[in-house]
Design goal:
Elements lengths: L1 H30 L3 H23 L2 H32 L5 H7 L6 E8 L5 E7 L2 E7 L2 H15 L8 E6 L11 H6 L7 H14 L27
Parallel strand pairs: 3-4
Antiparallel strand pairs: 1-2, 2-3
Length: 234
């Protein structure tokens, strides 16, 4: 009975993964119609090269098996990159896009969407991790700068010993494109220990959220993309 239960769970998990892959492919194909041809082409080329080498050295079976495995790996990598590019393309310019990216930065980061916002719906999100505090602003650069300054001043009352970094999302000078926000954050030097990160989060929570009574600005997001929970106006 236990084996049957385990087998059933594994089958259900595999079906879930296949459905997720199919959903991701459909979403990607809408923004990138050639994704199927490109991924298939990469796989065929890799397999063909390994097979050719196998015939040349007299081991077509071994190189064929290796080529098949490497072809699947190369196709998966290319598909992943094009899917990510398509997702960012659909998210670009949408309210809350930066919050969605922050929510998926990785383990060790605690994200609080919309810690500051103005009437024009320019918004600042906060992430806390080993690199310190990162404030990510999206909106008009001239309007978000005062928001960032005000939020830094407010946080300095309780976290004076924690480094604070700020990122303005955009394609202009001094800004960070949405697709590079995660990479930029992960490159920041890790200067805090786990207990220090926990302490900083506790202080910020105790400080309270000015945006706790108003929802995040609404806007269309690509199907299948995760949006963070919470994010109410303080």
């Amino acid at each position: 009975m236990a084996r049957k239960a385990n087998t059933g769970s594994a089958d259900a998990a595999n079906q879930g993964r296949l459905k997720q892959i199919a959903l991701t492919y459909k979403m990607t194909r809408k923004a990138d119609p050639k994704v199927g041809l490109v991924v298939a082409g990469v796989g065929i080329v890799v397999l063909g090269v390994l097979l050719a080498i196998g015939f040349l050295i007299g081991h077509p079976v071994y190189l064929g098996i290796l080529g098949f495995v490497l072809a699947l790996l190369a196709a998966a990598i290319v598909f992943g990159r094009r899917a990510e590019r398509a997702a960012f393309g659909q998210m670009e310019g949408q309210p809350g896009a930066a919050a969605a990216v922050l929510q998926n930065v990785g383990r060790g980061w605690t994200t609080t969407p919309a810690v500051a916002m103005n009437r024009s719906q320019d918004v600042v999100h906060r992430a806390v991790g080993r690199a310190g505090i990162v404030l990510v602003a999206e909106g008009n650069p001239n309007r978000v700068k005062p928001l960032l300054a005000a939020e830094k001043k407010r946080m300095n009352r309780v976290v004076v010993d924690v480094p604070v970094h700020d990122i303005i999302v955009g394609d202009g000078e001094g800004q960070v494109p949405l697709k590079k926000v995660r990479t930029t954050m992960l490159k920041l030097p890790r200067v805090l220990t786990g207990p220090q990160v926990t302490a900083a989060n506790d202080r910020l929570r105790a400080m309270g959220d000015l945006m706790s009574n108003m929802p995040l600005p609404k806007g269309p997001m690509p199907k299948g993309m995760r949006m963070p929970r919470g994010g109410k106006m303080r």
